[in-house]
Amino acid sequence: MAKNLFDDFSPVSAKLWKQKIQFELKGADYNETLIWNSPEDIKVKPFYDKEDFTKKNNVSTKASQFKICQNIFVYDLEKSIEKGLDSIHRGAESLRFTIPEENVNITKLLDKLPLENISIYFHFTFISIDFVKKIDAIAKEKKATIYCLLDPIGQLAKDGNWYKTQEKNNFETIEKLLIETNSLSIISINSSLYQNAGANMVQQIAYSMAHANEYFNRVSTINHPIVFQISVGGNYFFEIAKLRAFRILFTHIAKEYNHNFDCHLLVTPTKRNKTIYDYNVNMLRTTTECMSAILGGADAIANLPYDALYHKDNEFGDRIARNQLLILKEESYFDKVDNPADGSYYIENLTNQLAEKALLLFKDIEANGGFLNQLNDGLIKRKIQESADSEQALFDSGKETLLGTNKYPNKNDKMKDELELFPFVKIKPRKTLITPIIEKRLAEKLEKERLLEE
Length: 454
Known about the structure:
Elements: H1 14-24, H2 30-34, E1 36-37, E2 43-44, E3 67-73, H3 77-89, E4 94-99, H4 106-111, E5 119-124, H5 129-142, E6 145-150, H6 152-159, H7 170-180, E7 185-190, H8 192-197, H9 201-218, E8 227-232, H10 236-255, E9 264-269, H11 281-296, E10 300-301, H12 315-331, H13 345-367, H14 371-377, H15 379-397, H16 444-453
Parallel strand pairs: 3-4, 3-10, 4-5, 5-6, 6-7, 7-8, 8-9, 9-10
Antiparallel strand pairs: 1-2
């Protein structure tokens, strides 16, 4: 039998490691020099060992099964079908269609797609029982995997108003859909809104869980997986832990309602740290963010094109975004190992802390009227704004860095003539039930100033 080489070395305790580090610091304070505090109030140490591995998380993150998803906005039916087929031919394994209006011929759209091989997501800007029932009939006939991303609470949070419906309220519409359809996943949670608006990770998890809890409380038995649409940022290991914490908390909460389905995570890179200047750096950002999504256990990933902020949908940007995922999957072997983060002292510790802190915040929300009540009162928006302002202050002072924007900017970079889309917060005065939660990028103020100087 081969000798275990580790038997020749005595174990090294955390205390001995710390003593060695303090010696190398030559008098500098260990806590002040090497320990930093995250926006979630988690103290990050310079090393982790088995003493930090206090509880193994029973969370399944099947990295080998993640699907590459292509976003398609349906403005021209024929072109959308063509783009869908071309995307599948070039490596996409699922499609997310944004449907802007009810008169889209959904039967024709789905008829030419290989539904037996791919999964489909539908994002609506409206809610219609008849429209969803058409999709349900197709899903049943073709045994297709289709998710309708309906989220009335997310609509209220983002737009300030509910969906317009014939029924008394949006929950009544959802209730009818749950009763009258049986081949679709109906309910979705727009967690991306909280991340893109500046919420810290504990808030993102807790608000998403409280958001989901409102559906558990207000509609009948949910017989399909709930889809969480999540954005991931640039804090690599924290984002891996965040997705794992999502699954852990959802499982705990769902069990209370006898809901036995795991949540379904549809993940995309955040817009918050993306820039219009030195835009190629966006490719680096989205690559590491997609890596976090894979290792954290995303079921599907829709990458964000590097030029999505300022260019209309285009073949080149979509191809590059899709190829980033293909390289990670086919050439970097990210699909070969399930549960890749298991046993990492650092990630397991982060997962525990994020889950515990988010659970405390979730319980506080429920004890004080619930998520919808706090959303209507403006408390959720106010708390997110406080976190966003703190992060913005770090960026403005240079303590939080975006390369090419607030550090090492290329002064010769000109963008005024490249803007096909308006890349900043749009102000649209109108009557709303609540003040909506606004997504805003960190670099917006700086970029506006640079555009004026061109």
